[in-house]
Amino acid sequence: MISLRSPRAAAAALAVAVLAAGCGTDPHADTVHAGREIRGQLELLRLVVTADRAEVPPVPSLSVTVRDAADELGAAGQDVGELTDDRARAALASITDRAVAVAHRLDDGLGDGTDEGLDEVDAELRGLIGELARWGVTS
Prior knowledge:
The protein is mainly α. The protein is built from five helices and no strands. Keywords: Signal.
């Protein structure tokens, strides 16, 4: 055990404490990291929406892709709950909740076999990506 009676030992202990405190996580970096997973899934959904229907896999394959993206967004939303910045946590949780809802609507639309509503879905996805960009989450 180190004795803190000497000034040198006390200074060393203080330096270690300052370094340890400075090595904490950066809330902005955590937000960007969490947001990148969300953005990646949103971009994937946009690819499904904007794909040329003549060249894409059949609807069941697209539906699986969309459901997987919705699941990943749900998991990312749970991870967002660990952010230390309250505002970022609330904003990213809201974005993921809305993204999951959009993914489900997209999946339902694919099941109908029509392209109806794809423009609205694409606009919503672009809007969510724009919100992420305002939080510093860019491509």
